[in-house]
Amino acid sequence: MSQFKNHSINTKLIHGGISSDEATGSVNIPIYQTSTFKQEIPGVHKGYEYSRTGNPTREALENLIAELEEGIAGFAFASGLAAITVVLSLFRAGDKLVVSDNVYGGTFRVMDKVFQNFGIGYILVDTTDREKIEAAIDENVKAVYIETPTNPLLGITDIRTVAKLAKKKHILTIVDNTFYTPYLQRPILEGADIVIHSATKYLGGHSDLVAGLVVVNDKELAEKIAFLQNATGGVLSPFDSFLLIRGINTLGVRLDRHVKNAEKLAQFLQGHPEVKKVYYPGLKDHPGYEVNKKQAKNGGAMISFELTENHNIHTFFRNLHIISLAESLGGVESLICHPASMTHAAIPEKIRDSVGITKGLLRFSVGIEQEEELQQDLEQAIAASRV
C-alpha cells in the first residue's frame, strides 16, 4: 500500500496505490505496452516476466483499487464478467451460492448457462431478508453473492448482517459494488470477503473501456485469485489499465455531480403524475433507505422507474434527445435502458416477473449534464409518449 493509505478517499483516488514512476519521475504511471520482460538468467528478473502474469501498469491499478476498497489485494480483468468468472471459479462441483434475486442479467447467465454445467449451483433469494438467506443455506452453500444496490430494482442488502451470518456458517460474502464504487460504499469494512466491480461503469466513467476488478481481504483468497487470474488469462491490457487509473482519478468529482443530479431527478419523477413507481435508495420511502444510509454515503446515481399504463415506452425512447437509449451505465452521459429486453433479457420472463423486472420498467443512469435540461428531456418524452 502507498504512503497515502490513511488519507481521505478523495486524496487516495489520485495518489493511492502506485501513482508515479520511480524510474523517470513521471507523475503518471506509463503504459508498459509489452508482452514480455528481459531476464538476467532464467528466473531472475526485475519483478516481471510475462504480462499475463504481471504488468507494471496493471499492477498500479490493482494496488489502487485494493487501497480504495481497503482490502489486501486487487486484481484487474478484461471485463466485469471476466472478474465474476474468476471468482466463481473458486468453487467446485456440488457447491452452491445464494444470490440476490434481481441480480444483473450477465451474472445470472454465467451462473445459469456456464457454471451449472460444471456442477456449481445457485439459489435466487431476496437478500434484503436475512431469514430467507439463512433458510437457503445448507451444507452445499459456500457463499452469499449480493448486489447492493441490486440491478435494476435497487434493493438494499445489509452487508454487515449478511457477513455476520456468512461467517457464522463458515461461508464467503461476495459483494458486487459496481453501482456505488468505493467512493460511496466499502463492503470490506462491513465484513465482506470479496468485492467485485464492473469497472466499465463509474470507475472508468467515460464509456470508453471494458474492465473488471476484484478486491479481497484475505491472504489465502488473494493467492487463489492470483493463480486463477494467471491460469485463465482474462487480464486487463496495459492501455486499458492506464485509462482506468485516469478514470478513477476523477471518480469523486464525477460522482458528486452524478448524485446531485440523481437526487433532484428522483424527486421530480416521484412527484410526476404519469410516473407509477420510482426506485431510488436516496428517497426516504425506499424500502432500503435506512440500511443504505447506514452503509453508504448516499443513494447513488441510478434510478429505475415505471410510467403509467397510458404510455408507449418505445415512443418515450424515440423522443429523448439528451438521454441515450443504450446498454451499460456509469458514464458521464445519461443512459436509459429497458432491462426486460436489454440488460436482463437472459433471465427467464417468469423469474423477471416474480421479482418485479416488468416490461414497463426503465433503468436510468443519470449523467453529469445540466440537471434542468435532463428534467426537460424527460418531461417532453413522457408527454410525447402518451397514448
Task: Find the CATH superfamily of the largest domain.
Answer: Type I PLP-dependent aspartate aminotransferase-like (Major domain)
Briefly note the structural class of the backbone: alpha/beta
Helical content, roughly?
Answer: 25-40%
Subunit organisation of the chains:
single chain
Give the C-alpha Rg: 21 Å
Protein described:
This protein is α/β, with parallel strands linked by helices and about 375 residues long. The chain folds into 2 domains: about 10-250, Aspartate Aminotransferase, domain 2 (3-Layer(aba) Sandwich), CATH 3.40.640.10; about 250-385, Aspartate Aminotransferase, domain 1 (Alpha-Beta Complex), CATH 3.90.1150. Helix content is about 35%, strand content about 15%. The chain has helices spanning about 10-15, 55-70, 80-90, 105-115, 130-135, 160-170, 180-185, 220-230, 240-250, 250-270, 290-295, 315-320, 350-355, 370-385, and strands at about 75, 95-100, 120-125, 140-145, 170-175, 195-200, 210-215, 275-280, 300-305, 325, 335, 360-365. Strands 1-7-6-5-4-2-3 form a 7-stranded mixed beta sheet, with helices on both faces. Strands 8-9-12-11-10 form a 5-stranded mixed beta sheet, with helices on one face. The longest helix is centred in the C-terminal third of the chain and has 20 residues, at about 250-270. It is globular and about 75 Å long.
